Amino acid sequence: MIYECERRQRLDVSADVAWQWMSDVRRLLRLNLFHAEVNAPHPVTQAGCAVPIRHNIAGIYRQVRLARIHTYRKYKVAWGEFQTSGVDRFPHSQSFTLIPVDAAHCILVNRLRGKFVIPAARYWFMPVYRCIAPRIMDHENRQIAAAVAAMQSEERGNARVSGR
């Protein structure tokens, strides 16, 4: 069963400022509540990279998945995420896109698409996941909004200090 979800959030920074933070994909990969560890010692700034992610789902289900970055261009990052061994119960992809609004604002678009390989998922799992996934994605968007706002505030403070 295929699941798709899109969540948007207006950011009170320019797309360039938001992109400055988002451009290292490791930051985006660390946002998910189920991602316990992202194994990438160096910045991830290009398509073609594969990043191992250790997952921990409520302490009950642990696994390593691999995020393959398939799109990396200004204002957009996307990857597919797959289990490294065994049956993958949720092969999925996620993308983050920035849409410039004006010089001081942009829209963050967070998209998730995946397929559940779980018997009878549409009856018992999907109703729960439809409630949980948007909340997880909204949480990711709020984390980005807070990070880029803090980064912009820090840059303004540095500019004031150096301008004296």
Task: Please render the helix and strand layout as text.
Layout: E1 2-11, H1 15-22, H2 25-29, E2 35-38, E3 50-57, E4 61-73, E5 76-83, E6 92-102, E7 105-115, H3 121-124, H4 126-162
Antiparallel strand pairs: 1-7, 2-3, 3-4, 4-5, 5-6, 6-7
Helix pairs in contact: 1-4
Radius of gyration: 17 Å
What does the overall shape look like?
A: globular
Mean pLDDT: 91
Under the CATH scheme, the architecture is: 2-Layer Sandwich
CATH fold title: Alpha-D-Glucose-1,6-Bisphosphate, Chain A, domain 4
Intertermini distance = 60 Å
The secondary-structure element order is EHHEEEEEEHH
User: Proportion of β residues?
Assistant: 35-45%
Low-confidence sequence ranges: none
Provide an overview of this structure.
The structure is a single chain. With 164 residues, the protein is an alpha+beta fold. The chain has a single domain, classed as START domain (Alpha-D-Glucose-1,6-Bisphosphate, Chain A, domain 4), CATH 3.30.530. 33% of the residues lie in helices and 40% in strands. It has four helices and seven strands. It has helices at residues 15-22, 25-29, 121-124, 126-162; strands at 2-11, 35-38, 50-57, 61-73, 76-83, 92-102, 105-115. Strands 1-7-6-5-4-3-2 form a seven-stranded antiparallel beta sheet. It is globular. The relative contact order is 0.22. The model has no long low-confidence stretch (mean pLDDT 91).
